[in-house]
What we know:
Layout: H1 11-21, H2 50-59, H3 69-77, H4 83-110, H5 131-137, H6 141-144, E1 148-152, H7 159-172, E2 177-181, H8 182-195, H9 198-206, E3 210-214, H10 223-235, E4 240-245, H11 259-270, E5 273-277
Parallel strand pairs: 1-4, 1-5, 2-3, 3-4
Helix pairs in contact: 3-4, 8-9, 8-10, 9-10, 10-11
Amino acid sequence: MTTTQADPPGADQASSDTAALIPTATPAAGPRPGPAQEGHTPMSTPTIDNNALTASLRALKLSGMLQTLHARLAQARAGELGHLEFLQVLCHDEISRRETTAIHRRTRRARFEETLTLEGFDFTANPKLPAAAIRDLAALRWLQAGESVILSGPVGVGKTHIAQALAHLAIRAGAEARFTKTSRALADLAGGHADGTWTRRLRELARPTVLILDDFAMRELTPAQADDLYELINERAGRSLILTSNRSPIDWYPLFPNPVVAESLLDRLINNSHQILMNGASYRPNKRPGRVVPQTTTTPR
Length: 301
């Protein structure tokens, strides 16, 4: 049999007194938290001193973040970005801005006649062009291997366009490029003989990862020009060249006054190059006054 013990006298009063000493929890003021998105912690609205923030970002050379800061803050306030995501996205914005700025800077240094792209080349204008071989060059495997590209064929089929477009792809991949007419490069080196700056000028032409020599082998070379060209090709060993020419490489040999120089230079150059024959009719008649060229088409050169 179970015996129930009675509470001692005054117990009820003691319990009542003790409960009176325990504070009652009061709900926090403000709206109830809504359902948070999975994996996201909405950020509280910060108070920003725009002038101080601008100065800080500029001191850290991160002023590009200011271009997207307000948009990213709006995303954070809406709960679309957590704290780490907010920082990661801002860093990505800064990296993208720097890459774009670097591409523009390298493009200016390249001294292109025009900023042309492979996407803007009209392959349909000349069905005889080796479109697959040209597009294969867009993978830039030749650049990674330090190989060269020779684009030969008649005038007006787009050799200069393709050369500049390939160099622009190289720039977008982080390489330095330079465009020049072959005659101008040789004239520049000849000027260096006259004023004692030949070594510096040679190094400037040898420095870029990709050098375009447009209108290569247009005419016979003097002994001095042949020697300068020989030195330039040697100085650029391991760096890529893009040559455009109206002559087939086999027809370059007679243009050199010294057969030994020709054999040494051209054997090394030709055997380390991807040769693309761009045949077909000239596109330039399409530029005659009165003809309408579609806006989406870029005229080959």
